[in-house]
TrEMBL record:
Highest taxon listed in the record's lineage: Eukaryota
Catalytic machinery residues: 57
GO molecular function, one term: oxidoreductase activity
Residues of the NADP-dependent oxidoreductase domain: 22-88, 90-201
Pfam families listed in its UniProt record: Aldo_ket_red (PF00248)
InterPro entries membership: AKR, Aldo/ket_reductase_CS, NAD(P)_OxRdtase_dom_sf, NADP_OxRdtase_dom
Annotated protein name in UniProt: D-galacturonate reductase-like
Stored SUPFAM superfamilies: NAD(P)-linked oxidoreductase
Site (described: Lowers pKa of active site Tyr): 87
Length: 233
């Protein structure tokens, strides 16, 4: 398949543009290291340049290995050609492009998988956590910092003391979960919204098929000569 060029967007305070279409690397049940590595490598071949990973997905290692392999194969000339979003350090890269606070919560013990037990969830020290994120950017460990699954109130709390505002808020967003107020708020503050589970996380434990089976979306897709998945993302 011929490689495709994906448009990019500029993030506030980030010198590197972010490709708007990212390949997610969470899978339920986990796809396994080799399958994830092969999928990422294949995605680089067809033109993906942005990958979304996280410690909790167990996909940081295969993403890192796929990048090393892509460099070896000459699919990319430099790691700089890729935009890597993650939600905790473990990638064996010199830097990541976008580092997010995965959830606005604190856990009383270390767990590496979701879902987590309710009993170990506590409120996050939002300002303290954000100060540490700012330090990561100042140290050059990431080109941009942001949040994920944050509501307007918690973002306001960050903005009240931040010296570097969040560049991105990655949230669940799709045609049936439109988050209009949050989108308006983030737009006003110059925070880019990234959608996750754009297809309603069909085939997963918590998602359903209401988007992929939606008749209105199917009609819109048909009238444009696209698939439902294409008009939903
Ligand atoms: N920040 C966060 O808290 C957070 C939370 C969840 C997800 N994410 C990120 O967002 C990414 C995507 O989210 P997601 O996987 O939850 O949900 P999603 O993209 O809404 O749905 C993924 C499902 O869509 C199916 N699919 C793929 N292409 C399709 C097509 N053309 N037509 C119909 N179905 C199609 C896949 O099926 P198959 O399984 O058959 O391939 C997969 O099961 C994740 O990989 C992760 O990187 C972030």
């Amino acid at each position: 398949m011929a490689a495709t060029t994906i448009p990019s967007v500029n993030l506030k305070g980030c010198e590197k543009a972010m490709p708007v279409l990212s390949m997610g690397t969470a899978s339920y049940p986990p796809a396994g290291l080799e399958a994830t590595k092969a999928a990422v490598l294949e995605a680089i071949k067809v033109g993906y340049r942005h990958f979304d990973t996280a410690f909790a997905y167990g996909s940081e290692k295969p993403v890192g290995e796929a990048i090393a392999e892509a460099l070896r194969l000459g699919l990319i000339q430099s790691r700089d050609e890729l935009f890597i979003t993650t939600k905790l350090w473990n990638l064996q890269l010199d830097y990541v492009d976008l580092y997010l606070i995965h959830w606005p919560i604190r856990l009383t013990e270390m767990v590496s998988k979701t879902p987590v037990a309710r009993e170990i969830v506590r409120p996050l020290d939002v300002k303290g956590a954000w100060a540490a994120m700012e330090e990561c950017k100042k140290l050059g460990l990431t080109k941009a910092i942001g949040v994920s699954n944050f509501a307007t109130k918690t973002i306001q709390e960050i903005l009240s003391s931040a010296t570097i505002p969040p560049a991105v808020n990655q949230v669940e967003l799709n045609p049936l979960w439109r988050q209009e107020k949050l989108k308006e708020f983030c737009k006003e503050k110059g925070i880019h919204i990234t959608a996750y589970s754009p297809l309603g996380a069909n085939n997963t434990k918590w998602g359903d098929n209401r988007i992929v089976d939606n008749e209105v979306l199917a009609d819109i897709a048909k009238s444009r000569g696209k698939t439902t998945a294409q008009v939903s993302t």
